[in-house]
Amino acid sequence: MAQDHLQLFIAKMKIPFLLLFFLWEAESHTASRPNIILVMADDLGIGDPGCYGNKTLRTPNIDRLASGGVKLTQHLAASPLCTPSRAAFMTGRYPVRSGMASWSRTGVFLFTASSGGLPTNEITFAKLLKDQGYSTALIGKWHLGMSCHSKTDFCHHPLHHGFNYFYGISLTNLRDCKPGEGSVFTTGFKRLVFIPLQIIGVTLLTFAALNCLGLLRVPLGIFFSLLFLAALILTLFLGFLHYFRPLNCFMMRNYEIIQQPMSYDNLTQRLTVEAAQFIQRNTETPFLLVLSYLHVHTALFSSKDFAGKSKHGVYGDAVEEMDWSVGQILNLLDELRLANDTLIYFTSDQGAHVEEVSSKGEIHGGSNGIYKGGKANNWEGGIRVPGILRWPRVIQAGQKIDEPTSNMDIFPTVAKLAGAPLPEDRIIDGRDLMPLLEGKSQHSDHEFLFHYCNAYLNAVRWHPQNSTSIWKAFFFTPNFNPVGSNGCFATHVCFCFGSYVTHHDPPLLFDISKDPRERNPLTPATEPRFYEILKVIQEAADRHTQTLPEVPNQFSWDNFLWKPWLQLCCPSSGLSCQCDREKQDKRLSH
């Protein structure tokens, strides 16, 4: 009888125990599979947000994100340029591994109808999470290519790299996209248009004078040929000026062009609405949102609510508008009670573009704080970027972590959180950040980080285990111009080879932990282990380069140049390539 009562008691207790078990499983599942929002600014300097020390730019929402989570103070972009940095971010791999690093001067895509882009065999974190049941979206800038062989194959498009939804621009924001803001092709115009026209003009005048003086008889055909050549150059130049904007600056929704050329009117507000609507559509489903702002790459812009309101001109207006947008997303998560179950990451694709000065002398680039250099070079100002992560349920608020981390680390971090196994057929250079963020580890998993200037190995960072030192050795450095300045102002960005750099033998060595401004290179006299440190770094560089397979160069001239057959245009727009379905849809909705 006693045994029967015991069995009955156990049977009754099974039900609440099972309920508790399932509730625990559900809670554990939620904690391990958070919603994920990855926010990336464009060309934002580490010295721009208030939480990184700026006292005059107002960024209360980015600061709120930092105070509610972890601020990384040595967070590094895998490349100091947009396209390769974003390729590394998406794949967790150095861009040289995928052919997304250039051997020439131009290190980013400048035409939507180029055939280069993120290769189809690369695996993005979006693809991994989509395979795990996540709803995935990219809102904003892509800049990783569009098509390969025909304008409808979309082989590099976000939807072919794991995203369910895309709203934004396939290329990048450029001065040429906004009338009156100048051009990124000024140097090219000078070399290919103005100088040839001047030579032709001087030649024509010289021949005419010699002809008139009877010193040389110049056939009439030569005059006509030179005039025809001048007319051809001028026609191509004017055609480029007229067509570049509509052919390269357009908004897409998935595979469809919805605004060509794109309008800057309330552009950040439109991106914010799209991001908010995606979140609202997926309150019952785990989601991945990559919110990739056009701010603060030139051409700078802001809506009337922000124009002229900051203390830093049009650049400050753009930063403060972006911060407002971040706040809208944070507020929405609170309203929907999703904040505790959402991991948010905020960063910039590289450092501020210090050479960005308008034709009127206005500073259009941001602040890299105390750090030297900026976008397009591997001084700390070019690669040390904001890195903020918040996940209230898991990450303790108010932390600051000084260990070296990389934007490549997001790939393995979100993959593990989503329950996705990492690919085993390739090297993943990123490291899972969660042990650092949760306080389970006090030391970065990156003993070595390799800093590339386009496809050239430029510098190596070594953080020895059980040491506070962080050694950084430069094999070459850019030649700043004017001499003594903090950038390459004559060429607008620094280049990576030839007369644009100075090679160092032995390499230039710094201890970043003691000299973050990189002002005092070490010598055998100031560092007794000088040659020993360089030997370890060189051996690490040699081991690393041996892991690099030969891959197709996505920046070869064949892949980089504009191809008419890959050019996208609005349906039924004829040769004008102009439409505005955004405005049309807005009218229909009212």
From TrEMBL:
Listed GO CC annotations: endoplasmic reticulum lumen
InterPro entries the record matches: Alkaline_phosphatase_core_sf, Sulfatase, Sulfatase_CS, Sulfatase_N
Domain Sulfatase N-terminal: 34-420
Pfam families referenced in this protein's UniProt entry, alphabetically: Sulfatase, Sulfatase_C
Signal peptide: 1-28
GO molecular-function term, one example from the UniProt record: arylsulfatase activity
Requisite cofactors: Ca(2+)
Coiled-coil stretches: none
Keywords, ordered alphabetically: Calcium, Hydrolase, Membrane, Metal-binding, Signal, Transmembrane, Transmembrane helix
Transmembrane segments: 192-216, 222-244
Similarity section: Belongs to the sulfatase family.
Listed name of the protein: Steroid sulfatase
Organism: Papio anubis (Olive baboon)
